[in-house]
Amino acid sequence: MTEQPGAAAQGPLRAAVLGTGAWGTTFAMVLADAGCDVAMWGRSPEVCDQITTAHRNSRNLAGIELPATISASTDAAAVLEGRELVAIAVPSQSARTTLAGLRDAWPAGATAVSLMKGVELGTDERMSQVIAESLGIPEDHVVVVSGPNLAREIAEHQPTATVVAGTDPERVARVAVACSNPYFRPYTNTDVVGVELCGAVKNVIAIAVGIAQGRGFGLNTTATIITRGLVEITRLGRALGAEAETFGGLAGLGDLMATCASPLSRNHTLGRHIGQGLDLREATAATGGTAEGVKSATSVLELAARHGVEMPITAAVVGVLHEGLPVADMATMLLARPKKAERT
Ligand SMILES: NC(=O)c1ccc[n+]([C@@H]2O[C@H](COP(=O)([O-])OP(=O)(O)OC[C@H]3O[C@@H](n4cnc5c(N)ncnc54)[C@H](O)[C@@H]3O)[C@@H](O)[C@H]2O)c1
Ligand SMILES: O=P(O)(O)OC[C@H](O)CO
Predict the structure, then answer these.
(1) Ligand nearest, relative to CA of residue 203
(2) In 37-94, where do the E strands start and end?
(3) I want to staple 247 with a disulfide (CB 3.0 to 4.6 A). Which of 67, 139, 192, 252 is the partner?
(4) Ligand 2: residues within 6 Å at CB?
(5) Which of 265, 270, 284 has most ligand 2 atoms within 8 Å of CB, for mutation?
(6) Total Cβ atoms within 10 A of residue 342
(7) pTM of the predicted structure, to 2 decimals
(8) Helix, strand, coil percentages for the chain (3-state, nearest 5)
(9) Where is the binding site, in residues?
(10) How many Cα atoms within 13 Å fall on the side-chain side of residue 277?
(11) DSSP code, position 341
(12) 84, 4 in Cβ contact below 8 A?
């Protein structure tokens, strides 16, 4: 492990971003526009070279000009050396292996910032748990950033807020300052479990909305799925110790609204393709990028089962994506369930 400067170090905060996809690149821009010194690590030499020399990432963020100060490299040790804050934006299911490979180069004492929205298959762990385990760092060194944050809109500097959640107040405050700029406003929260579950499960609900819209259903159906989806997320979160207020906030209702409404969302788009009749392989290819809800639907449902929590919309999505449930049977599966009071 390399040593890194303490909080009192002079000059701009030294940050790194792991992953040169749409959100990693956009968050690097957010940090740079907040005054941080930013280096990115990616797997593709071509993408890294383009970010450093042409200040663009045409593969993942076409048409966007990046701050000229951002550099990118495939050399993880060089990127990580001396960084106080390291944001992680690789697909959730690859986080563990990616980070295990970077463990020796991890800057001692650095804050890991999870930008990922998923639950790990097999372990059913949230990303902050996966990060802490795979890097061998305490969980309070991990801070989560999650909210209604469609990458392209933020890359276009459209005004957006987010939630910065963690259990070490000083680290949370430093991350909030590090990503605060004229178009990006962080709010802080101590409810890591709630914020992470909101981010992961809204992707599953967005797939359900996409499927409904792909089948030609209108806004009554959309509103029904979003509202009952929020009930599902809240129910699971409460069972896992999250705070009720988190679910009505930016990471919960806010992100659910953005993801379920926007054609920019990969999860929504994938669901729409499924609703229009494509199979999962075809829909994945037509969507491009990482639709996290495809895999997280299964781990979320497992997590819910282990805690005795009912998640019918998530179960229906798992049924359609992974168990051969015909799309046409999804509405029947949900509407024919036994009647119940709304607040249960
Ligand atoms: N795109 C958004 O608008 C957005 C916003 C908020 C949060 N997120 C979350 O951020 C995370 C990353 O999303 P993204 O949009 O940047 O995804 P992306 O698909 O655009 O990019 C993922 C990046 O990870 C790399 N990668 C893929 N597989 C890898 C592996 N096995 N090992 C190492 N690197 C690998 C890819 O090369 C790419 O650079 C996801 O969890 C997503 O839910 C995305
Ligand atoms: O493109 P999606 O579906 O991964 O959604 C992107 C962000 O999570 C929206 O906040």
Answers:
(1) 2
(2) 37-41, 71-73, 85-88
(3) 252
(4) 117, 148-150, 203, 206, 255, 258-259, 265-267, 292
(5) 265
(6) 7
(7) 0.96
(8) 50, 10, 35
(9) 19-24, 43, 117, 147, 151, 202, 255, 265-267, 292
(10) 1
(11) -
(12) yes
Residue whose Cα lies nearest atom 20 of ligand 1: it is: 21
Say if 14-190 and 193-335 have the same CATH topology.
Answer: no
Q: Which atom of ligand 2 is nearest to the CA of 203?
A: 3
Catalytic, 340? Answer no
Domain 14-190 has CATH 3.40.50.720: yes
Phi, psi of 58 (to 5 degrees): -70, -20
Ligand 2 center from residue 268 Cα (angstroms): 9
The residue whose C-alpha atom lies closest to atom 13 belonging to ligand 1 is 23
Question: C-alpha 16: how far from its chain's center?
Answer: 17
Of the ligands numbered here, which is closest to the C-alpha atom of 145? 1
Distance (angstroms) between ligand 2 centre and the Cα of 306 equals 27
Tokens 């170090």: give the residue: 9
Q: Which atom of ligand 1 is nearest to the CA of 115?
A: 10
Give pLDDT tens digits along the chain (344 positions): 333 434 444 689 999 999 999 999 999 999 999 999 999 999 999 999 999 999 999 999 999 999 999 999 999 999 999 999 999 999 999 999 999 999 999 999 999 999 999 999 999 999 999 999 999 999 999 999 999 999 999 999 999 999 999 999 999 999 999 999 999 999 999 999 999 999 999 999 999 999 999 999 999 999 999 999 999 999 999 999 999 999 999 999 999 999 999 999 999 999 999 999 999 999 999 998 889 999 999 999 999 999 999 999 999 999 999 999 999 999 999 999 999 999 87
Residue 5, amino acid: P
CA dist 197 and 188 (Å) reads 16
Q: Is any ligand 1 atom within 6 A of the Cβ of residue 273?
A: no
Q: ipTM exceeding 0.85?
A: yes
Cα separation, 148 vs 186, whole angstroms: 11
Instruction: Point out the ligand nearest to the CA of residue 126.
Output: 1
Amino acid residing at 167: T
Strand 71-73 and strand 142-146: the pairing is unpaired
What's the CATH class of domain 193-335?
mainly alpha
